[in-house]
Amino acid sequence: MLPGLDPADLPADAVEVGRITEAWGIQGWFKVMAFNADPQALFSSKRWYVLPPEKGAKTFDGVACLRIRQAKPHSGTVVAHAADCADRDCAERLRGARIFIARSSFPSTLEDEYYWVDLIGLGVVNREGRALGVVRDLMSTGVQSVLVITDDSSDPPAERLIPFVAAYVDNVDLSAKQILVDWQSDY
Description:
Blueprint lengths: L4 E3 L6 E11 L4 E6 L5 H5 L2 E5 L12 E11 L2 E6 L5 H5 L5 E5 L13 H4 L3 E4 L4 E10 L4 E7 L6 E6 L5 E5 L4 E4 L6
Parallel strand pairs: 8-13
Antiparallel strand pairs: 1-5, 2-3, 2-7, 3-6, 4-5, 4-7, 5-6, 8-9, 9-10, 10-11, 12-13
């Protein structure tokens, strides 16, 4: 195992939040490609779980815990430094590692704010009580997020795109695993 990496088990609620792209500087810092435009989970968590890259050279096997000393924004990216990773060679050996953080470690959201990962898998129902499908993905159009809904009850399965804005989304009930929308099945 590399310095700074402790063997670990991936938490049951682990969410992939980014990848280590390259070493940054000579003191063990590295750059991270965050999968979120606002990577607060990376900044707030002091324990990142890493897996080796899917392709390319692998410098470690299995799941490891990377103890983070500091993570911060820098010139449109994220840079981080891990405990026991004191030089560029150590940081370079982390290149390509996939970063996971326990969902329970994410910062709390404000009212009417949601992490995308919490919306995936929720059922979508319109005001008339008709099931429109299940959220399979979300996409950002720059101005707004869009729910990608798959309706497996039709043959072939239908896909719907519903803007995730107050004009169309009446309620998100995470405990009931349901989103209520002002949308029709023929839109």
